[in-house]
Amino acid sequence: MQRREVLLVDAFADEPTGGRPVAVDPTGSMSASQRGRAAGEFGTSGVVSLDGETIEYADWDGAQAVVAAATAGAAGLYNRGALEPGAYELAVAGETDPAGPFGVELDKHGTVTVDVPTATPEFPAVDTDWIADAIGVDVAALEDVGADLPIARVGSFGGTLLVAVNFLEHLSGATPDTGTVAHLLDDADASRLVAFTFDTLAAETDVHARVFDPEARGCERGASGVGVAACTAHLADHAVFDGERDEIAVESGLFLDRPSTVRATVEREPSVGGTALTSLDGSLAVPEDDDDGIIEV
Question: Which domains occur in the chain, in start order?
Answer without folding.
Answer: 2-116+276-286 (3.10.310.10), 128-269 (3.10.310.10)
